[in-house]
Amino acid sequence: MIRPAPLFGLATLVLFVSACSGGDPTRERPSSTSESIVGGVDDTGAAAHNNVVMLGIAGGGYCTGSLIAPKLVLTARHCVAPNLTPQGIGCDINGNSTNGDHIGNNYAASSIKVYTGTKPAFWGTPVAVGTQLFTLPTKNLCNSDIALIVLNTPITSATPMKIRLTSPPVIGELATAVGYGSINDSPQGQGVGTRRRRANVPVVSVGKDWNQNLGDAELAAGQAICSGDSGGPLISAGGAVIGIASRGAKCTDPNENPKYARVDYQKALIDQAFAAAGASPLLETGSGTPITPKATGEAPCKTGAECSSFLCAAGGYCTDFCSASSCPTGMVCQDVSFPMFTKPVPACVPLGGGTACEQCRNTECVNVVSDCIADASCKAVLACADACADAACIAACKATNAAGADAYDSVAYCACNSSCAAPCASHCSAGTGGAGGAAGGGGAAGAGATGAGGGAPGGTTGSGGAGTGAATGTGGNSKGTSDSSGGCSVPRRGSSSNGFSLALAALALAVARRRRTA
After folding, report:
1. Is the distance from CB of 403 to CB of 377 less than 8 angstroms?
2. Other Cβ atoms closer than 10 A to 360
3. pLDDT > 90 in the chain, percent
């Protein structure tokens, strides 16, 4: 049974699919003959994968495996060892465990039994049993969910499957998933024990990826697998194993992207197992090349593996976790929502630039613009003021969002005192100059009132007697005859930090929970 896991830190927990404790495969359900490996068909006929086998595991569970030599089966590591974290495993995208060991010591190889056929007689005599296991020297399943079983006797009823060892899977390539697992999320394991296949399953991502919570040695694919399919192959169009079913979430969710261990990443371990089995692999060369990652701000991307930061925004551009001043030119650090995180996180987003004024000030005044856009009230004033043509309109924008008025004034001041004055003229002509103090005949200087609006500072000091100012200066950028400042006199705010440390962000966001399928 797959249950929702509690949230942990900033990351969304995704349930771990482990098919080793699925339902009794001998109990056939009435609907199982018409349904399949979540959207597939029974694996029979000319296209049948007779080299995909069922594994009986210690304790009564079962998994799926691939016969890759007469005496060698490829499967998942969690199929050959007891689970130590039934509440879920924690991984970061670097392949590190965040909650200790995930599995115990391997089962005895001789306790693992192999059955063949579309509907194996699971209660009967196996066609072979294990004699030796090859696994990575870790009890952490992150980046390591692979095992190879050397058999006591060769299986000659099926031709071994090819494997792709020398090139990576390619994002977008279509593959076939095969396994003996359930057809839905039923806690009874509905349909288990019948081998099924689903064709045209896309490879969604390959390698390190925040969007899919993948490590280097993993790939994500389209919906296909369920409880009981763990250890089963993802098969290329050329008939080679490119991935080993590892984990997933709700089987019947069409947006689910199950995770597979990459075969090409574990070439050294696989070569050792072939040597012990006295065989050589049947290789598919493949034509895949490593991804050339895009820099932050570049597009397009569909998933994090396509980005140097391993993070792709919903807008289809590469982004990165950030602090207030860490984004590249033309981007600003803002809180952004991602499906895989439980709350918004600071990430770089484009500043925009639909008008000449926006384009100019995003370059000339990037710090104050970034500060403004990060402040909801200032952002509202700025958006409102960009549509204005006179001072009264801008004053109304500021009055409506008073909390952002000062920050907006910083943007206007910078723009009006830079090369952006012409394209941003509507902002710069909005203020009124200071009231001009008329020169007196002697004594104190004339006193002037403070101008309002968005113009540049104006006003000079009157000189002479004790006369009082009377004339009013006009235009926010023109000089009055007063000692007061114009309405755009608010000094530029320094760039503020939102306190989000990039190093701490990577640590906090790295936690993603997975749970083994029941």
Report:
1. yes
2. 19
3. 53
